[in-house]
Amino acid sequence: MGEPNPGNNDYFALIQKNLVPRPYRLIACGDEYPSVESIRAFEKDLGVSLPDDFVDFSVSRIGGLYIEVKEEFWPPPKRFEVRPFWAMLSGLWVYGFADEAPEFMNILDQTPKVRERTGLELTPCLKIIGDANIYAFTQEGALVRWDHETGEAEPVSGSFLDTLDWELGELAKRQVRMEDERESFLRRE
Fold first, then answer.
1. Total tally of structural domains belonging to the chain
2. Quick one: the chain helix, strand, coil %, rounded to 5?
3. What pLDDT score does 164 carry?
């Protein structure tokens, strides 16, 4: 793939392909994207080799991405409400390197926590809101999905961008399903 390209705008097209014109809230690092050098230093410090597509995404304006369906279109669950699993998965985020990234999605803060929680040398990259499982990279840069129930990290076929594309498509499908079933969730008291 070569060196990452901070000016890459293909990522906007990836998001638009899956989500526009649906009612989403999207937050990204914008002009506060990290340098390739800072990511390479992170890799060296933690002994991990991140795939080029993830590094390239991370140094783009869309790196550190947070997407969720707006509450007026996806009613949040009420306290102690039981819902089908799909109805809890209202968004996703890509862990980012930007200084302003919230702690829960800051890869610098979360990598040690993920490693302690999983007992594995994993670096988190993608999280589905409402799902305890996470996508992460092994030290060699292989993409895995860590299962919170089994404690195992299963290999994922395809690249980080393939997986992000697939998960964005799945979010879009769930959002359409929520549109169809929204009234039943609003009536629950």
1. 1
2. 40, 15, 40
3. 96
* 53 burial type by CB count under 10 A (0-12 exposed, 13-18 middle, 19+ buried): middle
- The pLDDT of residue 188 is 59
Rounded-to-integer distance, Cα 126 and Cα 129, Å: 10
**Does residue 53 sit within a domain?**
yes
Q: How confident is the model at residue 62 (pLDDT cuts 50, 70, 90)?
A: confident
CATH classification at residue 164: 3.40.1580.10
Residue range(s) defining the domain that contains residue 59: 10-98+105-187
- The pTM for the full model equals 0.89
| Alpha-carbon torsion (26, 32, 36, 39), positive or negative | negative
**C-alpha separations of 58 from 50, 121, 131, 174 in Å:** 11, 20, 22, 26
CB neighbours of residue 179 within 10 Å: 14
Q: Is residue 3 part of a domain?
A: no
In a domain, 5, yes or no: no
Residue 20, pLDDT score: 64
Asked if residue 147 is part of any domain, the answer here is yes
CB burial of 71-89 (b: ≥16 within 10 Å; e: otherwise) equals: eeebbeeeeeeeeeeebbb
Note whether 126 and 92 are within 8 A (CB).
yes
pLDDT band at 158 (very low <50, low <70, confident <90, very high): very high
